[in-house]
Amino acid sequence: MATVAIEGMQWGDEGKGKVTDYFASRAEIVVRSQGGNNAGHSIEHHGVRYALQLLPSGILNKGVVNVLADGMVINPIALLDEIKRLKGQGVEEFNIKISNRASVLLPYHIELDRVREAALGKAKIGTTGKGIGPCYEDKASRCGLRMGDLLEEEYLIERLESSLAIKNRELAAFGGKQFTVQEVMDALKEAREYLAPYICDTSVFLRNAVKDGKKICFEGAQGALLCITHGTYPYVTSSSPLATAIPVNTGLPLTAIDDVVGIMKAYSTRVGEGPFPTELDGDIAKAIRDKGHEYGTVTKRPRRVGWLDVPQLKYVAGITGIKHVCLMLLDVLDVVDEIKICTEYKINGKVIDYIPSTVMELARVEPTYISVPSWKEDISGITSYDALPENCKAYIAKIEELTGTEICMVSVGPDKDATIIRKEMF
Ligand code: IMP
What we know:
Layout: E1 3-8, H1 16-24, E2 29-32, E3 41-45, E4 48-52, E5 65-68, E6 73-74, H2 76-88, E7 96-99, E8 103-104, H3 107-120, H4 132-140, H5 153-173, H6 181-195, E9 199-200, H7 202-211, E10 216-219, H8 246-250, E11 259-265, E12 268-270, H9 282-291, E13 304-306, E14 308-309, H10 310-320, E15 324-328, E16 338-347, E17 350-352, H11 359-364, E18 366-373, H12 390-403, E19 406-411, E20 419-421
Parallel strand pairs: 1-10, 1-11, 2-5, 2-10, 5-7, 6-8, 7-9, 11-15, 14-16, 15-19
Antiparallel strand pairs: 3-4, 12-13, 16-17, 16-18, 19-20
Helix pairs in contact: 2-6, 3-4, 3-5
Bound molecules: inosinic acid.
Inosinic acid binds at residues 11-13, 38-40, 125-128, 130, 132-133, 221-222, 226, 235, 237-238, 271-272.
């Protein structure tokens, strides 16, 4: 397989960072294609924990080219901070290419995110507060700036003038802070100077790389259910994390992606608002949350926790065509006696095995569960599938049977070594 895409199959935080790091160590190029610093990969690499937000995970592997592609929203100030933070942790090589088509996320987008969420009150989305939605809105309404604009000072000032003329009105209406062009230019100065040499047409680079048969990993950010079109709208992010969106977000043809590997946790989590049919509370939720360190990488919010939801996973596998899956955080489930799996939903007396398209219906579904016993022992040191406890293998086989996918990798702990490979995908 020369190219592989990674897609989170739930609401993000499935453990994509670990899989990307594994694939990145075999890749020549790692690509991020959408989202911004709302994403947060935690990666345990050679015993050190790194939190990546904008930089692709290949940054931890020497010799890998890391591409921040066309569909991303990039906060240049946050990107520079991330680079400085990684330098402080000993990362020496910043082999990066930043798309000149990617959108620029600026301080006023963050302020707009804040005032909008406050104005929504109880109806808030529960965003990460990083300005992602307002930046994508500007892209769609054609008053946004692109990374290439940072290289042309006169044009940059013109674009900022016209954009701020609109944005400041909105900020004033919400009682938010307004911005001057000079203020934004000053805030951007250091980042513009530092990042300028890395800004280029990444789609030309990537098309040539595909033609040359380079090994490319397209890492996913967020998760399928946060997709702006196919997720649990309006409680979603403002881009599409689906692997099927990668071609348009990178400037590559459909044929450029050889396979898609889905990433699912052994249970479900979500941050932010929105219906969550298999959500748990009480002691079981707390035990899973604590053992799985289920607190946001970006916002540190405690994540909501629930059982695995097969109708959702089948839906996601169906819309992307996922056949191979990495099952993450399996070790966490030894804290419970009994594991439940939601196999189907009931709504208005009807049984369905897919996720309804509106949040009103999703809030009304009643999950039907089956139960399987947990293994109640530490599996984090196990490195072969055969050595797993029988109950653990039975849980894996049940997930495969119910979702119609093949589990090619099982993660039993945060370390790179705590991984069981059943089939090499890349
Ligand atoms: P936004 O992307 O900051 O606008 O947030 C919109 C929704 O997506 C909120 O529910 C966030 O918690 C969620 N979200 C965005 N990025 C991530 C992520 O990387 N992991 C998990 N949830 C995310």
